[in-house]
Amino acid sequence: MAVILSINSGSSSVKVSIYKHSSTSEIPAQLAEAQISGLTAPPVKLAYTRGSERIKGQEAIGVKSNEDACGRILSHIVDDKGLAEISSRDDITHVCHRVVHGGDYPNAHIIDQETYHHLQDLTDLAPLHNASALAIVKACIKALPNAKNIAYFDSSFHVTIPQAVRTYAIDQSIAELNGLRKYGFHGISYAYITRTVAEFLGKKQEDTSIIALHLGSGASACAIQNGKSVDNSMGLTPLAGLPGATRSGDVDPSLIFHFTHDAGKPSPSSTKEMHISTAEDILNKQSGWKALTGTTDFGTIASSEDPKCKLAFDLFADRITGFVGSYYVKLGGKVDALVFAGGIGERAARLRNTVVERCQCLGFAIDSTKNEKDILDMVQDVSKDGATHKTLVCQTDEQFEMARQCAVNMI
Questions:
Q1: What pTM does this model have?
Q2: How far is CA 398 from CA 34, 147, 189, 276, in A?
Q3: Torsion of CA 338, 343, 344, 345, to 10 degrees
Q4: Which residues are known to be catalytic?
Q5: Bridge partners of 152?
Q6: Which is deepest, 58, 94, 193, 246, by most CB within 10 Å?
Q7: CB 15 within 8 A of CB 40
């Protein structure tokens, strides 16, 4: 039996899902789930679920970093007497790490010394996204010396994006030397969405074409043709495309130089390991709907009559609609479904309704009664009867997708 940890490390939280896998099944079974949140906005708190056993909001005293959080979670699961599959750290056989930027890696990769150094090099390309994951990788290699550490990249799903789509109109000798092109992100989520939606529709994955929207504090859109990504709204980094909680999304590239004269200078949040410019800091951490409204809570924004919140809501809906229209044309109108996913995609019924109403001319229509229901199924149909194309909501699960790929390949 294999015991698999799936780790999703962000700037303010660390999530770990624990699975077991036997050779008799391709599908891993979830045993427990743990999360430490509040790393950038204390108090830091632990949440833990195993069957009916639940811990919520327990203060994690002394936890100050992603590495601390990982160590605390490992200690908690090893000390949990109800988790019979893990009596010591040696029982953990595989550790799956979500790494946002994988450069040109087309698939998951066992993390050896060479891989680790290559990912360190990519940190300069995506300092705000890879650094926390690499800190966890380093901690796990030390804490779990007998386990295989495997990197799963958000960019890998998008290696099928055509050259003309991924290329920027800049000097190609410099672009190729520095890896400057569109990579696309949220790929682990889109892999899960594509597979589960194909199953829901009763189609083979290679026969499934969808427009998928991963909408959360980081948001993106993806055109998937015959099971493969042909475009993603994100680019060289996750900053491009849709706005998010603190990200600007697409802006005129020259805007930042008018916004501040210090754009190219190091940000105060730079460290010896992370080289962050003022421009990167402003556009990634000080923009988005937080800059427009003062809050990162989209639920509050969607339910508010405040003009600032209304502007943020309408702006977000407008940008999403623009990508849906563009991708509909890119797919030649051969679209099986428009799929909403991510925390906002799953919960914001008003946003789904607004976007689909604006896309009615393309053959999408939403049933208001279905749309207002809680999303309980893995994939849930909210389409109006008779609509040309389906509108679906998918409860995406990146941690499960990593564990499933690990189990299928058992690397």
A1: 0.94
A2: 14, 20, 5, 27
A3: 10
A4: 154
A5: 98
A6: 193
A7: no
